[in-house]
Amino acid sequence: MSITTLDGKRFAKMVLLGATHLSNNAKMVDALNVFPVPDGDTGTNMNLSMTSGAKEVKNNVTPHIGKVGSSLARGLLMGARGNSGVILSQLFRGFSKAIEQKETLNASEFAHAFEMGVETAYKAVMKPVEGTILTVAKDAAKQAVDAAKNETDIVVVMEELLKEAKASLNRTPDLLPVLKEVGVVDSGGQGLVLVYEGFLSELKGETIDNMSIATPSMNELVN
């Protein structure tokens, strides 16, 4: 099924499924957390942040996608926890700023909103570090923008965005030595991929249910 325009109600469902998928896998993301310090709370912080954003969206569902985006940004900002939660909130603050005047989005506008989110997040971080959630978001957004040049189907653009997000995530150990040393991918990047997986599942009419990704515990990773 092709989707050429995205409205607020559909986007709200995407946000809710993205938040649910992240929540279901928060412990797995915690287990990956070795940067900047191995305190095992990235998944928890991102989950608290995204849940706050999703709650605000759920309470303010409207066909106007710009207003839904603003609700998401407001909720994320209010609930932002830790570095990863703050960066997540900034990604969607930029995203929402790009769409705030729009009732619906086409594929190109959808892709460019992700790009605007990346620009906002990079500006918000004093010393951006590559090999983190920022890199995953940047690479994914670039792929989405490239795809949208020749593609009007938002589902396809989201597929391309997620595919590159996963590829970028797998490259994070090559950019951050501490990740390679321990043998893990970046925890914040993994959290973002989970959100994007939820987005795509909703667009395709799929349910994630309680699907979670098996991962070794922190002790297994470190030993």
Give an account of the 3D structure.
- By secondary structure, the protein is an all-alpha fold.
- It has a single domain, classed as DhaL domain (Serine Threonine Protein Phosphatase 5, Tetratricopeptide repeat, Alpha Horseshoe), CATH 1.25.40.340.
- Helices cover 71% and strands 2% of the residues.
- The chain has eleven helices and two strands.
- The protein has a two-stranded antiparallel sheet.
- α3 (42-58) packs parallel to α5 (82-99), α4 runs antiparallel to α5 and α6 (107-124) packs antiparallel against α7 (133-148).
- The longest helix has 22 residues, at 154-175.
- The radius of gyration is 16 Å and the shape is globular.
- The N and C termini lie far apart (46 Å).
Q: Which features characterize this protein?
A:
disordered C terminus; 2% strand; mainly alpha; single chain; 11 helices; globular; 223 residues; 2 strands; Serine Threonine Protein Phosphatase 5, Tetratricopeptide repeat; two-stranded antiparallel sheet
